[in-house]
Design a protein that fits this description.
- It is a single chain.
- The protein has 429 residues and is mainly alpha-helical.
- The protein has one domain.
- 69% of the residues lie in helices and 0% in strands.
- The chain contains 20 helices and no strands.
- The N and C termini lie far apart (51 Å).
């Protein structure tokens, strides 16, 4: 009896130690170092505030990128060391796409010897790491991250607005704090879609409307045709977003109806007054040139490569050595550039990554990528870090109670039995 009692006591002691260790491990996994998380968030804020300011030439890291690296590398290492559980499909497919870009460009670099193949791969690696970094921060501090991101975006939008407004010497097309007007227009579009995501379904207020008005003004100063059209599509999509209440929807519809009446009745005096406003006049003149300007030609944009060099749709041409195609610049299209540079496999992996990012999100989140893809018909915008930040902001929907509940309900009818508790703790990176 004494031996049995000692054995039983020993087993209980061992079980208690295992349970205690499990609790400690679980605690360490969920609360990875609050101080480190706080420091990472400060770095994130610093990046957002510096991101619009381009000091160096385009195509090389800017000061904001250098700052962000200081947070991304240790955060990824910390996440990997504390990783437990399954890897989400978005990480797997996104990682495979980035790996493919590196392999394809490395092969062409070794074969051709052109250094231009190196930078695109580094961009994709950095951007995917930024995506993981933002998701990591939202996992550990979702409400704080959403609040500071919204405030930081608001600050930089206002700063950019006043800079453009006060800089009278900006020329016919304003570049703001960027190197060229297209960068300014793309940034303005990214800020617009990001602001809608950061509202997390709450109604737009007066301050939000002022921010969108400021972004619209910036678009009319940048005078990017793709930017203005895409931003117009974004404004239309806002009417179908939960952030827009019934009064705003009614105001929006009234505006459209008034515009139709104005065009139908041909009130020349009103039309002349509206078009007479400098910014609107410049925007109208710029948009009227669509189809006639030389840069609207698909041949100039590089689309002809898809037909002239069909073999690269299979193998991929890599992103570099554009002289191979009698061109001085890359293919100016987001999706087309990925298809041509990395072949059908790379294109499918990229689309698959987008699918897994938006798969369990409400449809209105996926709608917001429409103006970005539209802008990408004329520009290679998928290497831009802001695009990957937008994806991370959307993906972070899962960290909010409403998102966790809707995600679980949307999967309730699937073949696999899914416990809602899964969504209370998203796996580590």
């Amino acid at each position: 009896m004494m031996i049995f009692s000692d054995d039983a006591a020993r087993r209980r002691h061992t079980n208690n130690l295992s349970l205690s260790q499990g609790i400690v491990d679980k605690h360490r996994q969920i609360n990875v170092t609050p101080l480190s998380t706080f420091i990472f968030i400060l770095i994130w804020i610093g990046y957002l505030l510096l991101s619009p300011f381009y000091i160096f030439h385009s195509g090389i890291p800017q000061p904001a990128d250098m700052l962000l690296v200081l947070g991304v590398i240790p955060a990824i290492i910390l996440a990997v060391l504390n990783y437990k559980g399954k890897i989400l499909s978005a990480y797997i497919i996104g990682g495979l796409f980035v790996a493919l870009t590196s392999i394809v460009n490395l092969i062409y670099y070794l074969y051709i010897g052109d250094k231009s193949f190196i930078a695109p791969s580094l961009f994709y690696i950095f951007n995917f790491a930024v995506f993981c970094f933002i998701v990591f921060l939202f996992k550990h501090a979702p409400l704080l991250m959403n609040r500071v991101t919204y405030l930081s975006v608001s600050v930089i939008v206002l700063l950019q607005f006043f800079y453009v407004l006060m800089d009278a010497g900006g020329g016919y097309r304003h570049s703001g704090t960027f190197n060229n007007p297209n960068q300014l227009a793309h940034w303005s579009l990214l800020m617009g879609v990001s602001l809608i995501v950061l509202k997390r379904g709450t109604n737009l207020n007066i301050f939000d409307l002022l921010l969108f008005t400021a972004l619209a003004y910036i678009q009319t100063e940048a005078l990017s045709k793709a930017g203005m059209i895409s931003y117009g599509v974004l404004i239309v999509l806002m009417a179908f977003q939960p952030v827009t209440n019934k009064k705003l929807k009614a105001t929006f519809l009234l505006g459209i109806f008034s515009f139709i009446i104005l065009e139908a009745t041909a009130l020349q005096e009103v039309q002349s007054w509206v078009v007479g406003i400098d910014n609107i006049s410049a925007a109208v003149h710029r948009l009227e040139g669509i189809g006639t300007d030389g840069d609207d030609n698909p041949m100039v944009r590089g689309y002809s490569r898809l037909i002239e060099y069909p073999q690269y749709l299979i193998t991929g041409a890599g992103e570099g050595a554009h002289w191979r195609f009698d061109a001085r610049q890359e293919l100016h299209s987001g999706l087309a550039a990925i298809l041509f540079s990395y072949g059908i496999l790379g294109f499918c992996l990229f689309i698959g990554f987008l699918y897994f990012v938006f798969m369990r999100l409400p449809i209105y989140y996926a709608m917001l990528i429409t103006p970005l893809i539209l802008y990408g018909l004329m520009h290679q915008n998928f290497r831009n870090t802001g695009f990957w930040i937008f994806l991370a902001l959307c993906f972070s929907y899962h960290f909010f109670e409403k998102g966790k509940k809707e995600s679980a309900e949307s999967l309730a009818g699937s073949d696999k039995a899914i416990d809602i508790s899964q969504f209370k703790r998203i796996p580590e990176i």
